[in-house]
Amino acid sequence: LPDAVQAICELPKPTTPRVQGSVAGGGLDIMLGCDYAVAAESARIGLTSVRNGLLAGIAIPVLIQAVGARRARQMLMHGGMYEAREAAQLGLVDCAVPAAMLDAEIAKLADELKRGAPSVQALIKTLVARMDGQPNDTAMAELIGRQVAAQCLTPDATEVMSAFLQKRKPGWIS
């Protein structure tokens, strides 16, 4: 399971689970490893390991990223279940929608994500993971500057310029 969660985190494309029913344990780990999470209002999300005498170790890093260290500590010690709307307020999921709207909401999100350059989306995932918790100092500014300059020379950047000049959408937008 740790390898599966890490693989999801490292996928170069945006990921989103379709959350319905109850999500806990390994399902929660996978959900938190994704970039977005859209839940049906009827879904329940739980961090129940502590109540079973277990440590939700795999979930800890991605939970901290989702809700912050203090809230993660509280949730892990409490071990409760959260209704989808509350889970959205806490940052466990990005939104909770009526079950009948779940597929439409995910399709809407997917359509929006398709508008982004794939190479930039992959770079964002890599850089955010690398920069998380690091000081915003001269070394960070130099890293960002190098990445911005390198991205300007990629096929995606060239495609955007060509599309702009030809008054069309970039090729990756279907």
SSE topology:
Layout: H1 2-10, E1 18-19, E2 22-23, H2 25-33, E3 38-40, E4 44-46, H3 59-67, H4 69-78, E5 81-83, H5 84-90, E6 95-97, H6 102-113, H7 118-131, H8 138-151, H9 155-165
Parallel strand pairs: 1-3, 2-4, 3-6
Antiparallel strand pairs: 4-5
Describe this structure in words.
- The protein is mainly alpha-helical and 174 residues long.
- It has helices at residues 2-10, 25-33, 59-67, 69-78, 84-90, 102-113, 118-131, 138-151, 155-165, and strands at 18-19, 22-23, 38-40, 44-46, 81-83, 95-97.
- Helix content is 55%, strand content 9%.
- The relative contact order is 0.13.
- A 3-stranded parallel sheet has the order 1-3-6. Strands 2-4-5 form a 3-stranded mixed sheet.
Summarize this structure briefly.
With 174 residues, this protein is mainly α.
